[in-house]
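Complex record, two chains
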Amino acid sequence: MTNSNSERPSEFELIAELFAPLATSPGAFGLTDDVALLVPPAGHEVVLKADAVVEGVHFRAEDPADRVAKKALRVNLSDLAAKGAEALGYLLTLNLPDRMSMTWLADFVRGLSEDQKVYGISLFGGDTTSTPGPLSIAISAIGTIPTGTLTRRSGAKPGDLVFVSGTIGDAAAGLAVLKGGHPGLPELEKEMLVQRYQLPEPRLALGQALRGVASASLDVSDGLIGDLGHIADVSKVRIAIDALRIPRSDALKAAGDTQKYIVLAATSGDDYEIAFTAPASKREQVLDTASRTSTRVTEIGRVMQGAGVMLLGAKGEEIPVARGGYQHF
Amino acid sequence: MTNSNSERPSEFELIAELFAPLATSPGAFGLTDDVALLVPPAGHEVVLKADAVVEGVHFRAEDPADRVAKKALRVNLSDLAAKGAEALGYLLTLNLPDRMSMTWLADFVRGLSEDQKVYGISLFGGDTTSTPGPLSIAISAIGTIPTGTLTRRSGAKPGDLVFVSGTIGDAAAGLAVLKGGHPGLPELEKEMLVQRYQLPEPRLALGQALRGVASASLDVSDGLIGDLGHIADVSKVRIAIDALRIPRSDALKAAGDTQKYIVLAATSGDDYEIAFTAPASKREQVLDTASRTSTRVTEIGRVMQGAGVMLLGAKGEEIPVARGGYQHF
């Protein structure tokens, strides 16, 4: 918004009236300059992440504007969380169809403003462009981390345990509910699942507390099994997950509680939880960390020599899973 | 590309084969982690800028893929240049229509790779998503600057002189040529103007040399007069520009040399030159800076008390100009 080639005549009004109050950091210059300035605290490195959400792909056109804004922001903060970083702010690029109203934009900005307070972050600049295509929101999140403490994907070792935060599979079931699925579920369970789809919760406190405890971690966005495959690949290890230990919410269990549903939960996306490994000697430390940050953490498997990810059933048998990609409920 | 919700099945191949070689900085982890790490040199601040280009708005669907890539990158580097920053790298978010071929993508990546070498920068991560809409490229550029030396928009003072780099109006005339305009121009002039539209030249060396010399500066992207209006607004001054001193290329003059064409040049966009002010006492220093960085710099006006921007004709009469927005040749 500090500078743009947009042809929307009202853009400068948008800047002044809507987005400028989001530039709460002095280095954002109230969005009145070409760039923003960021001064990392002494002894810290800068952590960067860019992720976009597109209408019809990552959210639905009828989703509330404030929730769309929060989801766009939170999927990026979730990556900072998984690495142990602290969030500082973000850059925002909006591709805006002409049909979006000022009311929609005001709700969108309200959503951003509310989350800025929750996470203590500032808008650092951006760009708004009109598009004949769908609404698209690209965010670059900026965080900081004490030098040398980033939790990589590459540190998992044979003998390590595998953990995951929160519950898995809710978001995909929430999307199914929005599409008319699970008609028999009580309204409260439906809304809980929908909220998990629309409002992921970046686990920033947990991720920071896991610095030096976790040996490898990432955020679960494309499905638990597929994402753990990235840790397996980069760490050059094999990961075995016990299907029955994968944490599922009561609402999800009410939607379906057979092995089929567990596999769907483990392979569907949009969870935005942290999956991580830690040495077996640090199990107590992990559980203590979970307790101190009031975050549910569940031990779900172990790291071995080899390659790839195995999902194991009740009797230790391997459950076949198509790796990667979205699965839908 | 480090993480994505994309449903394109070939995305992980794209990452590995095409984009990973662009992650030349160690902190980009070869795009194998959730985030990138950036370590600013001691005594430096981080400079951030996000700008998107959209097919049909900022470039044409038939523009060569390598030039589209370079333009997307350079419009961001141009902002860093105008502030005196050094470029370090960028985050890239691609909204990719299904019709884009692997050949197109390979050319796109080649364009980025060539410019990374020219500007000494690295890809730090990003995201690729399929879209039913037009191709859209959002870039967040990351630079650094010695602490406290950023050239703001807000420092212009009455009595200062106004300068601009390069020539003005070429890009808009180049776009007109691409649309079939100026049929009588020789091919060499046509290609020169088209190149100015497709391949802006961020004036990084000039911008860095102007630290502490320029009192205010910005990059000219929406039209010289409109953009100088931002300096006038933020610096709370009035700016007077002599129309006849606005630097125009021989190719542009060949396309039209009346006052009408000068006004078009001064109000059309996509120049990506640096417009700046400096105290009259520093005129020699400015010209020396231009010479040392082999960059054409032209004195075009002066700063006064008041508000807004005036364009003055040969006899000092004010030429009426509709401020802001694109004008087309």
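Note: Chain B touches chain A through 75 residues (CB under 8 Å).
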